[in-house]
Amino acid sequence: MGLILCEKQATMPYTVPESGKNIYSIEELCYYIYNNSYMLGKEFFSKELIDFVENGLSLESLAQKLKRGVDYGENFTNMIMYILDSCSYYDEEEKQGFVKTLDAIGSKSPAERIKARADVLMANKKYSSAVAVYTIILDQKEFAKQPDFLGDIQNNLGVAYVHMFLYEEAISCFKKAYDISQKEDYLDNMVCAAILLDDDSSMGEIMEKYSLTNETIEKYRKVIDFQTKQIAKSKIYRDTVARLAHSENTSLDLYNERIYQMLNEWKLQYRNQFI
Q: Residue 146 belongs to what domain range?
C-alpha cells in the first residue's frame, strides 16, 4: 500500500483476499481496516492474517489475542480494536469514533454493508471503484427479492456512470431502477442522462415508454441549463478557464506549464478513483 512511518515492514506482504491489497506493516493494516470498515466481517480474521501478524510482523502478543478471539467467538469490534490498539497510527479520539462506526455497521446485513461501502466510495468521488462494488451486489441472486434495495443499487450505479460520462450505461441503469421501483427520482435521473447524451433515438424511446411529453422534457432541459449556468459561475470553473486562456500578456512557456500542471492534476484525479 505504500504508507510511510511504519515501525516494521514484513519481507513478504499479506494480501487481503477481498481487495487484493498488499499489506506490509501493522500501520498499513490499521489504515486498511479504518478505511474499509464496511467491507469487513468475521472472516477477515483468517488463519493467514494471524500468521502474518505473528510471523511476518513479529507481533506474537497481538496474534495470540486474535487467535483466542477467533476460538471463543469474541465480539467483532473487540477484535478490530486489538489491531488498532497495537500501534499509535490512530489517536484515541479517532478510535472511539471508529467504534461507533463499527457498532452501526453491526446492525446491517452483508448486502447493506457492501452498499454502504460503495456509497462511501461515491461520496469520495471514487466512481470506478464504486461501480465495481455495486456490481458485486447485483451479481448476488439472493437479493432478487428485495426490489427497493436493488432499485437503489441500480440508481446509484447509474449516478456513478454519469460522473464517468458514460451516459448510455447510466440510462440503462436508471431504466432498470425505475422499472424495479417506480420512484420519481429514478425517472428524473434517466431523463437528465438522456439529455446529456443528446441522442434523439434514446430520448424518443424514453418518451414513448414512459409517456413523457415534449413539455415535460423541456422542463428538465431548463433545470439542466440552470445548473450549467451555476457551474459556470463557480470559482473552480473560472479558474479552469483562466488557466486555459492564452493572451499576449502570457508567455507561451508559462501557458504550456499551466496546461501541463492541469493535465497532471486531472490524471491524478482519475487515478484516485481507484483504490
A: 110-233
